[in-house]
Specification:
- Residues 1-23 form the signal peptide.
- This is Fibronectin type-III domain-containing protein.
- Pfam families: CHU_C (PF13585).
- Keywords: Signal.
- The chain is an all-beta fold and 950 residues long.
- It is built from three helices and 66 strands.
- Strands 3, 4, 7, 8, 10, 13, 18 and 19 form an eight-stranded mixed β-sheet that branches.
- Strand 1 (26-35) and strand 2 (42-52) form a beta hairpin.
- The longest helix is centred in the N-terminal third of the chain and has 7 residues, at 81-87.
Length: 950
């Protein structure tokens, strides 16, 4: 076996029994775990302990293993070694030099169910003379390590990180000490590292522990600076102590955390961690550190052979040893190899790393391959110096092949592709689309679909599906281009290279809008220029010209708000006037008629370019967007242009707009930062600067001229504006009540409940408001919500550019809102007065039921049919049944005492002892409490007769 792996010579217990027992005290150790059953929560725990052979105490004699679920092995009183050996499924012990022995125990444990479990090992004594514990009096200090496992069905079951580099290391006085644990995660989870104090028991830090950068330990660095450095890289795991000052033994501890993305919570969740308690032996040296040469980080396609030469050198011309560590050496089959067998050799030393990758190696995170070089001084008693380097290698799945596209019909495109080679690993196939072609090379580390390409995810399908029909708003005249990507499931994840691009052009059999451009920005006299093509490829025998066009305008980017028929014309352009182009974007649609005045079809909708800005300190940030059927990210015309006034030295010229810069949107997106760099004149905080952005777009169709040029509205913003805008006022309709200081509105959506099922819980509230935009710079509005209306409970739930907002996904209508205005410098107004929506409660009970077991009307149940009579917004039920005279209570039910409350009641006609009641008439009382603001609607009492018919 290679030195890059943990390889152990197994010594049987019978041989050990006859040999001299190891005389030990604890130096270092850790606990790791792997799951060994797919049908139960059975894990195998490996405890590795490094001990001092000069002492007279055996490992595990005074140790205790706690599985965190009530099961323990041993005790701290001693005499446990035989118990540990008998309980272990694997035991091994050997001398590794430098007065150190390594002991390995493996135990199996099955957990009862999900939970967070702390598995720990504690032993009474560390080795003596650890200089940063009690000034060197460390013999009586217990040694404690622990591993935390989180078993969560929503995150799947996993193994802990595995550590491949031993926790005993050597360093030199005055030289930077580095160590890397060579950690990897078998499941591909993300690893993170952090330093922690040494422990002597669960939750108990070692008394007298001093960190290695404490002035009493070290005050120097290798370069002569100060103070000393003692840290671990949270990403690579490289632990650095720069630099030791005094020869001796020191201990430090860190944990290796594992994180996994949860589809349920939408964030990375901590699965657990492994604690490493390590020992560092510092000696006096006259030596220089060896050096490593490793390749640049890389990506490699699964199935490819990866080969690289790793070189170790030494400035003192000492012999060097080059080793490799990492999870890639533990794969079966196709483990990585490091040849020849590592050994101290005359420098330079070249080692060959060789890894035949396959599909099972695909994962999102790169593999971390740690290389270590150690020198061998000519003095045999002198310690060596070491250096670590990490090589990151990402194994990428090959691109899907055979992607083709063709017109299925006038409004859909058929895609087909080959069976994917890695389908046995259950990826999904993601389908991306854009308008017009976009060329890039899916190779090296350019995985999936690159940012800025303009491709959008339109769907994903099971991996065994090899065809797809795109009906997602496919429009005439557009050249639609597709690529597909295989996406692998968590926890390993991984994204394939993108397929080759395929494109299909839809014939132009309707008008195609090419321009929606702002000609004049004004609050009342604004102008928009709209232009379109005729239906160039329509069958004129079926639809004879001349054509008549109707231009329809809408407010905003999408939707039907403000629908207006602007003109009817035979021309293909129009200037729309008397508009508020300062505050409102618009989108347009063209309907067309043939010579017989028959409505044939309509174009896609296209909006104007809407520019927004954020005023910063002596700078302005611009963003723009448009909802259009063409693309504004065109490789042949990648630049959008920025126009601005006040470009003169004094920044006084308001009227003349000058091209100040351009943005390559295929690289940087629709954003621009203006700090005056274009003419080396900083922006002034007391001026208002105005901007216009010109975009370039394309349909990717040779019949439509390219580029399509459109201008945004003129937008003015003042840098470093600190004046907040005016506070909005929420619209309050007639009929509002004031209850306990809150303005309460009945939800206008209550009437719609009659058409919704009783289990419906996806409610929404819509509110509108007005704001006096004194400075004309209100950019948007923040919406705050509180379920109770109490001060201090309002939380931000949305932002809207329009003076209206619909809050969706609510469990009821009940809740209160406040609104604030946000200006273009991100100043926020004070919050408006609260306005609250109330629930509309409902509850109705029958007067007869037939508990005869026929499945019809068998229980006394609140009406749930028709839907309009559903119980709504019920908080509690108190229900009692009396004999016909109303004197004796014979049955009662309360939701307050029920774990799973039934607001329908569903009384089965039995008394409180479970005895069937005879036919007849009974008296009942029901008190229903509702979840409402209005106290007049909070409680409803029912007193009535009910008849049992059997």
């Amino acid at each position: 076996m290679g030195l890059m792996r943990k390889s152990f010579f197994i010594i049987s217990f019978l041989l050990l029994a006859g040999a001299q027992a190891w005389a030990t005290h604890i130096r270092a150790g850790e606990i790791t775990a792997v799951r060994i059953s797919q049908t139960s929560l059975k894990f195998r725990f490996t405890i590795v302990i490094y001990s001092d052979t000069d002492s007279g105490v055996q490992v595990a004699d005074g140790g205790m293993l706690d599985f965190g679920q009530g099961r323990t092995i041993g005790s701290l009183k001693g005499g446990n070694r035989q118990k540990f050996i008998e309980a272990a499924v694997f035991f091994e012990e050997k001398f590794i030099g430098n007065k150190t022995a390594m002991t390995i125990f493996q135990f199996e444990h099955t957990f009862d169910g999900p939970g967070v479990y702390v598995v720990s090992y504690t032993e009474q004594n560390r080795n003596d003379e650890i200089l940063n514990i009690n000034g060197g009096s460390s013999k009586q200090v217990p040694f404690h390590i622990e591993t935390v496992l989180r078993i969560d069905p929503g995150l799947d079951v996993n193994a802990t990180p595995q550590l491949t580099v031993p926790p005993i290391d050597r360093g030199c006085i005055g030289f930077r000490f580095v160590h890397n644990p060579g950690a990897y995660d078998p499941d591909g989870d993300s690893l993170a590292y952090r330093m922690v104090p040494l422990l002597q028991d669960r939750g108990v830090e070692v008394n007298g522990y001093v960190p290695l950068n404490d002035p009493s330990i070290s005050t120097m660095r290798e370069n002569g600076g100060s103070p000393a450095k003692f840290e671990i890289d949270p990403i690579t795991g490289t632990f650095t102590w720069d630099a030791p000052m005094i020869a001796g033994e020191y201990n430090a501890a860190f944990i290796v955390e594992e994180w996994r993305f949860s589809e349920i919570t939408g964030k990375h969740e901590l699965l657990g961690y492994v604690t490493r308690d390590m020992q560092i032996l510092i000696e006096d040296c006259d030596n220089e550190r060896p050096e490593l040469e490793i390749p640049a980080d890389t990506c490699i396609e699964a199935g490819t052979l990866l080969e690289a030469v790793i070189r170790g050198t030494d400035p003192d011309n000492n012999k060097v040893l080059v080793e490799a560590f990492g999870g890639v050496f533990d794969f079966n089959p196709n483990a990585a190899q490091f040849t020849p067998e590592p050994a101290f050799k005359t420098q330079p030393v070249d080692q060959l790393f060789r890894w035949q990758t396959d599909f099972s190696h695909v994962r999102e995170r790169p593999y971390e391959i740690q290389f270590k070089v150690s020198d061998k001084p000519t003095d045999p008693d002198a310690p060596s110096l070491t250096e670590y380097a990490t090589w990151y290698v990402t194994v990428v799945a090959p691109a899907p092949t055979g992607l083709k596209s063709a017109i299925a019909d006038a409004r859909s495109i058929q895609l087909t592709w080959d069976n994917y080679l890695g389908r046995n690993l259950s990826p999904v196939m993601k389908i991306y689309r854009r308008v017009d072609t976009f060329d890039f090379d899916p190779e090296n580390c350019n995985l999936g679909i690159p940012d800025g390409s303009g491709y959008e995810l339109i769907d994903q399908v099971p991996i065994n599906q090899t065809s797809y029909v795109d009906t997602n708003n496919v429009r005439p005249g557009v050249n639609y281009c597709y690529r597909i990507v295989a996406e692998f499931p968590l926890p390993k994840g991984g994204t394939s290279y993108a397929s080759f691009e395929t494109c299909t052009l839809i014939p132009i059999d309707v008008p195609v809008i090419t321009n929606v451009s702002v000609k004049e920005t004004n609050a009342t006299n604004g102008e928009m220029f709209v232009k379109w093509t005729s239906p160039l490829e329509i069958d004129q025998a079926l639809f004879p010209p001349p054509f008549r066009y109707e231009l329809v305008r809408y407010e905003g980017y999408t939707g039907t708000a403000g629908r207006t028929l602007v003109t009817s014309t035979t021309d293909t352009s129009y200037t729309d006037t008397e508009l508020d182009t300062r505050d409102i974007p618009y989108h347009y649609q063209v309907r067309f008629y043939d010579s017989g005045d028959n409505l044939i079809d309509s174009s896609a909708v296209a909006s104007s370019v809407w520019l927004s800005a954020l005023g910063l300190v002596k700078a302005v940030e611009l963003k723009w967007e448009a909802s259009v059927p063409w693309t504004n990210k065109v490789q042949a015309y990648p630049y959008h242009y920025i126009m601005r006034n006040r470009t003169d030295a004094a920044a006084n010229d308001e009227n003349n707009f000058v091209l100040i810069d351009s943005v390559k949107v295929t690289d940087h997106g629709f954003i621009y930062f203006d700090d005056g760099s274009f003419n080396n004149t900083p922006l002034l905080d007391d001026r208002e600067y105005c901007y216009i952005v010109t975009t370039q777009g394309s349909y990717g169709n040779d019949l439509i001229p390219t580029p399509l040029i459109n201008d945004s509205q003129k937008l003015c913003v003042q840098p470093n504006d600190s004046v907040a805008p005016e506070t909005p006022e929420i619209d309050i309709p007639d009929g509002a009540e004031q209850v306990n200081g809150l303005i309460i509105l009945d939800s206008p959506n209550c009437a719609a409940l009659e058409n919704l099922g009783c289990a419906f819980v996806n409610f929404s509230n819509t509110l509108s408001w007005t704001a006096d935009d004194v400075d004309g710079d209100i950019a948007s509005y923040n919406i705050y919500f509180s379920p109770t209306g109490a001060e201090g409970t309002f939380k931000l739930v949305g932002n809207s550019r329009d003076a209206t907002f619909t809050h969706t996904g609510l469990s009821s209508f009940k809740g209160c809102y406040k609104i604030s205005s946000i200006d273009r410098s991100n100043n926020e107004s004070s919050l408006s007065a609260a306005v609250c929506f109330d629930n509309c409660p409902n509850y109705e009970l029958p007067n007869t039921f037939t508990p005869n077991g026929d499945g019809l009307n068998d229980t006394f149940r609140a009406f749930d049919r028709p839907n309009g009579k559903c119980p709504r917004f019920v908080k509690a039920i108190e229900f009692k049944v009396f004999n016909r005279w109303g004197g004796k209570e014979i049955y009662s039910y309360s939701t307050k005492s029920s774990i799973e409350p039934n607001y329908f009641i569903d009384w089965d006609g039995r008394d409180s002892n479970g005895k069937e009641l005879p036919e007849g008439t009974y008296y009942y009382q029901a008190i229903v409490t509702f979840d409402v603001f209005n106290p007049r609607k909070e409680t409803m009492e029912f007193k009535n007769w009910v008849k049992i018919v059997r």
